[in-house]
Amino acid sequence: MNDQAEALRQLVQTREFPRSSATRIVTVTSGKGGVGKSNFSLNFAMALQKRGHSVLVFDADIGMANIDVLLGTPAPYNLFHLLKREKTIWDIIQTGPGGLQFIAGGSGFQELVRLSDEELEYFAEQVALLNGHVDFLLFDTGAGLSKQTLRFILAAEETIVVTTPEPTSITDAYALMKMVKTMGNEVAFRLVVNRVGDDREGRQTADNIRQVAAKYLGMELPVLGFIPDDANVSKAVKRQIPLTAAFPDSAAARGIDLIASRFLLEERKRRDRGISGFFQRMKRLWS
Question: What pTM did the predictor assign?
Answer without folding.
Answer: 0.84
